[in-house]
Every structure is written in structure tokens, then in C-alpha cells.
């Protein structure tokens, strides 16, 4: 991939070629950090307040000092401007800073970085596979947007090897949970359903917006525990994320799905677009 020309690190814009993080940074050493991914369009980050609130919650859970909202927003705007990007994928990362060569924390201040890249266009539909590993809904990191993404890297690599674009996890109770970077919804008998947060899935910003949009549009939707086997019987399914919005599924494992022909899925996609239309920070 082509790296952006500039990056924001601890309060200043630097050349990416000269950007440096300490080899003792605990985010690098042990994945001791949290992050948010946003999109920006026409020069404005989308849903910055919701993402900041989740970033603060993750920082609180990990005992990492969170940035003030104004610092967080200005850092994103400065990084986009430095790279000449009005439409961008934005990554805000916080770590606990320098620490020992192990799990013990040091006393250094937090490290904060902001990086941007051009928005990646997604195909009209996605394909997924259920991977043989599980999400631990009782994990200390459950529901935290942690930088400890080793499970996701391994799962997504396996999905790609099998010709799928995203990997889907069950939890330890054999319930449907989430993807590596997505929430998942299914449609059965006209009702939209998605796993509850108690499943161990991340509280996705787009997931919440879809739930709100469905309520406004009068679309029946439920947060409910679902067996992983529901993916072999549901009528339609779609993913949500900040970069994908509502993304119809065309295949689950070896099972063909309606994709863009799914009437309920497309109704949800339209309801989402109507709900956020004209608003940078719904």
C-alpha cells in the first residue's frame, strides 16, 4: 500500500517517512492500546462524537488517558489537510505509552497517533465464512476496541484463503457474534435481528445508527441471542461498519444469499441513508 505523506503523533504533524514510535511503546510491545476508525467525506469526519464517546469508554476500561474532544477532532482535521484528503479513512490510536518488556505498565504518558488513507471502495456485496475460532464474551477485552487484533488478523487471512471477504465469529456459547471489523445482521420472516452486546460483539457505531434508523422507518428489528446455525437458514444477511455502512451478503460459507436482491436489506440500507442524510454528526 502507498503510505500517506504525513501523520499526526502526540500533538504535531510529521512526515510519515520520519515518524517514529518508541520500541518500548506498550501498544507495540503487547497490544496495550485502543483505537477508532472513522470515515470523512467532503472534509468532515462522520459521527465524530459517537466515535469519541466510544474511544473514551475504551480508554477508561483500559486505564489510558483519553484525549479531549477538541484535540481529537482537530488532530483528524489537521491530518486530512496535511495529506490533501477530503474523503478519507481515519484511524485514531491511543496506547499506554512506554512500558516494561512485559505486561506491567510503565508511568509514561499515553501515545496518540492519527493516520489517514483514501477511502477504499467496497464491492456491492460481500462474502463471508464462519471461522473455527470463537469470541470470548467474558474476556477482559470484550466490547473494547483494543489494538490487540491478532485473532482478527488470523481469521481474516483464513477467510481470504477461502475466497471470502470477511470472517464471522461465534462466541463461546455457539451464538452468532461479529466479524473481524463488522457487526452482522440477519433477516428472518421479515424481521431484522442482530446479536446483543452481551454476545461479546463490539458496540458498533453504524450498528447503533442502523437500529435507530430502523425504529424511525418502522422496520421490525431485534437485538437477540442467535445460534450460529442461523446463518444456514436466514433469508438475508448484511454487515455494518463505519467504512461499509450497510453491506449486503451474497454468500455465507458455501450458501448463496440474496445480496442486493434482498428486499429487507435494501430497505434497511435506504432507511440508514435517509437517517444520516445531511448530518455529519447524527
Relevant terms:
282 residues; alpha+beta; D-amino Acid Aminotransferase, Chain A, domain 1; D-amino Acid Aminotransferase, Chain A, domain 2; 2 domains; nine-stranded mixed sheet; six-stranded antiparallel sheet; 26% helix
Topology summary:
Elements: E1 6-9, E2 12-15, H1 26-30, E3 33-41, E4 44-45, H2 48-62, H3 69-82, E5 88-95, E6 111-118, E7 126-135, H4 150-161, E8 166-171, E9 176-179, E10 183-188, E11 191-194, H5 205-217, E12 221-223, E13 236-241, E14 245-252, E15 255-256, H6 263-276
Helix pairs in contact: 5-6
Structure, explained:
- It is a single chain.
- By secondary structure, the chain is an alpha+beta fold.
- The protein has two domains: about 110 residues, Aminotransferase class 4, branched-chain amino acid transferase, N-terminal domain (D-amino Acid Aminotransferase, Chain A, domain 1), CATH 3.30.470.10; about 150 residues, D-amino Acid Aminotransferase, subunit A, domain 2 (D-amino Acid Aminotransferase, Chain A, domain 2, Alpha-Beta Barrel).
- Helices cover about 25% and strands about 30% of the residues.
- It contains six helices and 15 strands.
- Strands 7, 8, 9, 10, 11, 12, 13, 14 and 15 form a nine-stranded mixed beta sheet that branches. The chain has a six-stranded antiparallel beta sheet with strand order 2-1-6-5-3-4.
- It is globular, with a radius of gyration of 19 Å.
- The mean pLDDT is about 95.
Amino acid at each position: 500500500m502507498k503510505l500517506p505523506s504525513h501523520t499526526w503523533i502526540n500533538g504535531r504533524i510529521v512526515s510519515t517517512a520520519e515518524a517514529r514510535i518508541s520500541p518500548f511503546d506498550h501498544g507495540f510491545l503487547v497490544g496495550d492500546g485502543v483505537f477508532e476508525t472513522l470515515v470523512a467525506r467532503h472534509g468532515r469526519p462522520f459521527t465524530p462524537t459517537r466515535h469519541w464517546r466510544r474511544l473514551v469508554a475504551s480508554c477508561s476500561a483500559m486505564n489510558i488517558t483519553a484525549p479531549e474532544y477538541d484535540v481529537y477532532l482537530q488532530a483528524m482535521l489537521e491530518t486530512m489537510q496535511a495529506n490533501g484528503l477530503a474523503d478519507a479513512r481515519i484511524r485514531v490510536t491511543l496506547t499506554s505509552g512506554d512500558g516494561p518488556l512485559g505486561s506491567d505498565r510503565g508511568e509514561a504518558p499515553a501515545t496518540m497517533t492519527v493516520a489517514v488513507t483514501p477511502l477504499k471502495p467496497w464491492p456491492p456485496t460481500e462474502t463471508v465464512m464462519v471461522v473455527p475460532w470463537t469470541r470470548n464474551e467474558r474476556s477482559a477485552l470484550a466490547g473494547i476496541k483494543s489494538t490487540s487484533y491478532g485473532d482478527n488478523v488470523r481469521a481474516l487471512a483464513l477467510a481470504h484463503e477461502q475466497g471470502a471477504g470477511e470472517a464471522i465469529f461465534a462466541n463461546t456459547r455457539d451464538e452468532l457474534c461479529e466479524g473481524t471489523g463488522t457487526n452482522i445482521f440477519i433477516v428472518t420472516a421479515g424481521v431484522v435481528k442482530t446479536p446483543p452486546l452481551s454476545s461479546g460483539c463490539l458496540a458498533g457505531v453504524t450498528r447503533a445508527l442502523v437500529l435507530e434508523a430502523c425504529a424511525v422507518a418502522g422496520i421490525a428489528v431485534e437485538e437477540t441471542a442467535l445460534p450460529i446455525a442461523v446463518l444456514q437458514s436466514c433469508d438475508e444477511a448484511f454487515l455494518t461498519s463505519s467504512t461499509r455502512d450497510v453491506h449486503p451478503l451474497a454468500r455465507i460459507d458455501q450458501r448463496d444469499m440474496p445480496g442486493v436482491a434482498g428486499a429487507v436489506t435494501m430497505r434497511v440500507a435506504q432507511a440508514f441513508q435517509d437517517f444520516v442524510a445531511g448530518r455529519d454528526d447524527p
